[in-house]
Amino acid sequence: MTVDAASAFKYEKLDAVTPLDRVIFGSADPFALAQRDEETIRLAVVRDAVDFHAARDPSYRRWLTSAAVGVDELQSVKDLDRVPQLPTAIFKRRNSPLVHSAEARPSRSSGTLGTVSAVWRDHTTTQRLLGSVKAGLRLIDSWYEDEVHVVNLGPDRQEAAGLWFAYVMSLLEIVFPTTHCVKADVFDKTATLQKLSNALGAAPSVGVVGPPMLVADLAATALRTRWSCDADRITVVTAGGWKRAVGEALARDEFDDLVCRAFGVSDPYRDVRDAFNQVELNTVLFECRARRKHVPPWVHVTVRDPVALLPVAPESYGLLSYLDASASSYPCFIVGDDIGMLRDGACPCGRIGRTVEILRRVRRDESWGCALKMDSDVVR
Amino acid sequence: LEEYRTLLPPARRTFDESARVALTRRAEAFCGFEVLASPDSADWTIAVMPPEAVTEHPLCRTVYVHEVADATDVCEWVDEKVQTVAVAPWERVAEMRDRLARRGVSRIVELGMNNVFRMGGSHDGMQPLSRLVRFVSVERPAYVHGKGMVMSNDQTELLKAGTLRSLIL
């Protein structure tokens, strides 16, 4: 039998670009949508994701059934608050009932609180994570790929492969020319300053990306060694928080002052930003100029009380939970250890939309005695 | 545990404690384990699940129940990290106490007595009161013929009789 290739192509329905991918990877700025459009998109893509994971993963289907939530009942964004989430502790379990495909690979957390999380991601999920980074960078600037050289205060992708946060930072090399500054777990500050000088010679702008502790270390070294550069050519993006160096954490204004003096930044609100991610969440949340972390349309955030995990009143603090439609290899419908607040409406940066403020992690050491407390406060 | 909400009311739960309990309850339920809990509060929780499934204990009167085929199988899950083993019914303690002791526990008590310490009992494998005390002995005089002694304790008389070596050796 002969195959008519032309007609085969003619009648094959390709699902290469889904509505979700159009939002994540499309040319339109996902943070510039009208509120009504944003809510319509959010409801549609999150509802599709719930439907998708209920069909794909029997454990999540059971969870949905036990919560008596049907996909057809999700008719408004408010209904999304009813979608049951997975506590992030599930990802710390070796015998988690979650199903993952053979293609998926584990992304592992640093285990700040003692136990390492493993989240299984396939290519689609990872690509969409990268899409969230590209989309989020719009909140900082609208660079072309050849306008920025990134100096990553972390290892390259090969070395970072097993560790989630380092891996996310290393992904920037897919978007921009990137120099990685950690090799075999060693962060050489003097060599990094040289790499920074080289990057400034190679591109009009340079992005310094890293955890705040390493950025602060590098800035202090720059000041001590009288390293200098032209004014306003460096943008600093921090991520990952202070973690075990929390005892050395600088207040935001102190950090700004240090970075501005070291790297010639005149406006920290423009050029010193923070980003948030956790291994279980498939979207990176970036700060705008007003230093609020904007939530893209494919993520629904609900703030919950700590007892019944029900939604709290608007602009109240509680546990942050996310319905992130961008993950295909696991149901990224999670409630975890972060305490924060959701704001909805006009942001001082000029955009309309939802922003999250992340206050701190739930403390796990308060009842366990002094050793862990000392470790979190003092030991690096 | 429900009765103890009134008999021995738990301390007021902080935000963090409540969150730990709520997240734990939800994680166990998602994994399909049976969870019994105080309604609308983080006062107490019971989860029935295999031992290897426990990751982080949230405290706050949370009890994990691990089912075993025979009560003595419990010993397999006990090592020196376990301070106290509570047994019920108490009549069965003889079947496992020696094995539990060899595994490294410090206390074996009747169920319900975990936090009720008998005077003079051991704690974490030692008798901590002894470390807080400087012992001073006021000893009986030479004329007291001590229990188990076969001769006088008077050193002078012993030397005169040439029997001190017999006392010492």
Descriptive notes:
The complex is a heterodimer of chains A (380) and B (169). Chain A is α/β, with parallel strands linked by helices and 380 residues long. Chain A has twelve helices and 16 strands. The longest helix of chain A is centred in the first third of the chain and has 22 residues, at 35-56. Chain A starts with a helix and ends with a helix. The model of chain A is unreliable at 367-380 (pLDDT under 50). Helices cover 25% and strands 12% of the residues of chain B. Chain B is an alpha/beta fold and 169 residues long. Chain B is elongated and about 85 Å long. Classes of the chains: A alpha/beta (380), B alpha/beta (169). At the A-B interface, helix 4, strand 1 and strand 15 of A face helix 2 of B.
Topology at a glance:
The complex is a heterodimer of chains A (380) and B (169).
Chain A: H1 5-11, H2 19-25, H3 35-56, H4 58-66, E1 86-87, E2 105-108, E3 118-121, H5 123-137, E4 148-152, H6 157-160, H7 164-170, E5 178-180, E6 182-183, E7 186-187, H8 189-202, E8 205-210, H9 212-224, E9 234-239, H10 252-263, H11 268-271, E10 272-276, E11 285-286, E12 293-294, E13 299-304, E14 318-324, E15 333-346, E16 352-361, H12 370-377
Parallel strand pairs in A: 1-15, 4-5, 4-8, 8-9, 9-10
Antiparallel strand pairs in A: 2-3, 6-7, 10-11, 12-16, 13-14, 14-15, 15-16
Chain B: H1 4-7, H2 15-30, E1 34-37, E2 45-48, E3 62-65, E4 84-87, H3 93-103, E5 107-110, H4 155-161, H5 164-168
Parallel strand pairs in B: 2-3, 4-5
Antiparallel strand pairs in B: 1-2
